[in-house]
Amino acid sequence: MxxxxxxxxxxxxxxxxxxxxxEFICVQVFDKMANFVAGDEMFTIQNPDVERSVAALxxxxxxxxxxxxxxxxxxxxxxxxxxxxxxxxxNIAKAVPFETNFKxxxxxxxxxxxxxxxxxxVKSQIVTSSxxxxxxxxxxxxxxxxxLDLVQxxxxxxxxxxxxxxxxxxxxxxxxxxxxxxxxxGLTPSGDDFLxxxxxxxxxxxxxxxxxxxxxxIEERVESLLFKTTVVSKAFLSGAxxxxxxxxxxxxxxxxxxxxxxxxHRSLEKIAQHGSSSGVDTLNGILFGIKWIMGNLKxxxx
Length: 302
Known about the structure:
Layout: E1 3-11, H1 12-18, E2 23-29, E3 33-38, E4 41-46, E5 56-59, E6 75-79, E7 82-84, E8 88-91, E9 96-98, H2 112-129, H3 150-163, H4 170-180, H5 190-204, H6 209-224, H7 231-241, H8 247-258, H9 261-272, H10 278-300
Parallel strand pairs: 1-8, 1-9, 4-5
Antiparallel strand pairs: 1-5, 2-3, 2-6, 3-4, 6-7, 7-8
């Protein structure tokens, strides 16, 4: 018996790439999704209630993937509009492409007070959410880890010099990225989650020519180092370089731009809930990015 499922939506970048590959290999199976690789690309087939991301192929209905005849190592062919093996067919014929990006900020609408308010809300969410002591998400703002583990210690050593100065040391930071990327265990190492949060902020303010110049340099550095991290992290970092982020991050910047505090709280909570530590690590990157923007504005005004 063959089980048939329909895919209702595919991220635009994956829609373009799926036409050039012939086989999916299953690497992880969870209750609400399964991750696949094709070459060095990652694809996530997932339920409609899972957050949309740069890797997503979204089904029309909810299923429990662990109850399917599907396990890591299984191979699925791409035949016409179907991703299939002898047991399962995922039909993508009617899938609609979607993107996960956000409108860029107008720097004329931002001042130090508005940025400080944004930083305060993110910091409050980090402190509220960081209860398990896992990851790097609150190492810099809240002394909860006693003692720090080796990953946390290294992260603090790398980032503290930038936290302690108003001058943005772009050359030093691009070198520091070499040690941040891939830092930590798991499918998405903490250092990568931090970088995604940071990149999202810098892109949000990239209408400013100076910030855009720095963004280009940082993105080039990250892209050159993608080989150092996991296939899952590589997918999300590649998306960030292309200006594509998880749905909750996009929602946050939409709320930030519109000064909708209720929606900001809701989206920050949603980000924080991602994974065991990934969300809080991402929030730490967002907070770090906001602080850097504040430093840039101070320099520009002097």
